[in-house]
Amino acid sequence: MRAQLISSHTDSKRGRVNHHISRFIPLLLFCVMVSMAHAQTPTSQPAKAAAQSDAQKAFEKMKPLAGSWQGTVMAMSVNIEIRVASSGSAILHEATAGGGRPPDHEITMFYVDGDRLLATHYCDAGNRARFEGKVSPDGKTIEFSFLDVAGGTQTGLVKRMAFTMIDANHHGIELTFIMPDGKPVEVRGEFQRTK
Questions:
Q1: DSSP alpha helices (H): ranges in 77-133?
Q2: Which of 11, 32, 41, 165 is most buried, with most CB under 10 Å away?
Q3: 28-64 CB burial, b ≥16 within 10 A, e <16
Q4: CB 107 within 8 A of CB 100
Q5: Rounded Cα distance, 64 and 169, in Å
Q6: Which pLDDT tens digit goes with each residue over 91-135?
Q7: Residue 138 — very low, low, confident or very high, per pLDDT cuts 50/70/90?
Q8: Model pLDDT for residues 71-90, shown as the tens digit of each residue
Q9: Residue among 141, 189, 146 nearest 166 (CA)
Q10: Which residue stretches of the chain are H helix?
């Protein structure tokens, strides 16, 4: 009988203990979840994003040029369409004078390759000149120096390009075009945003 009383007494104690523990289980689970979430949160500052290269900075400086532009080059009206393409990895620049005369949907593609800002100019002269761009010390102009050319140069060649950001609605373009006789012609135009 004594063994039965001890057992009953122990069972009733166990019941009270179980009842007390069951009251604290939700609090215990909450504390465990909070400490697990805290453990997964980095305690130090997140690593800084890798610094942009000069080429990437120059490329980013050109992206706001996206839109429609109109200007005059050598007394000829020229329309330009600029758009960011290929998920932001390229900028397409298309120049058109209209009436089938040059520039006739002439395209230049700008892109970053490693630590270089490159441009490939698909010229109406039938060739493809490549350039490397650098930002001027004042940060307003991106000057493109000639690298190489594919295709014939008998009908001329663009040897230099420069883009100057004047403000959000104006930019200038300069080109040095080498004529078939080898004479360089400087071409300049200022363009105003139409869209």
A1: none
A2: 165
A3: eeeeeeeeeeeeeeeeeeeeeeeeeeebeebbebbee
A4: no
A5: 10
A6: 999 999 988 788 999 999 999 999 999 999 999 999 999 999 999
A7: very high
A8: 999 889 999 999 999 999 99
A9: 141
A10: 2-40, 54-62
Distances (CA, A) of 105 to 57, 85, 171: 27, 17, 19
- In the block, tokens 């441009």 appear at 119
- CA 176, CA 159: separation in Å to the nearest integer? 5
Q: What is the DSSP letter of 64?
A: G
Is residue 140 packed enough to be buried (19+ CB in 10 Å), middle (13-18) or exposed (0-12)?
middle
**Tokens encoding 126:** 């039938």
Distance CA 184, CA 134 (A): 22
> What tokens does 4 get?
């039965």
Task: Map out the domains of the chain as residue ranges.
Answer: 1-48, 54-193
What is the C-alpha separation between 116 and 144, in angstroms, rounded?
11
Interacting residues of 89 by C-beta distance below 8 A, sequence separation 6+: 111, 112
Look up residue 151 and give its amino acid: G
Q: Which two tokens stand for residue 142?
A: 């991106």
- Residue 50's φ and ψ, nearest 5 degrees, are -60, 140
DSSP character for 144?
Answer: E
| Residue 187, token pair as written in the block | 């071409």
Across residues 13-39, what is the average pLDDT? 48
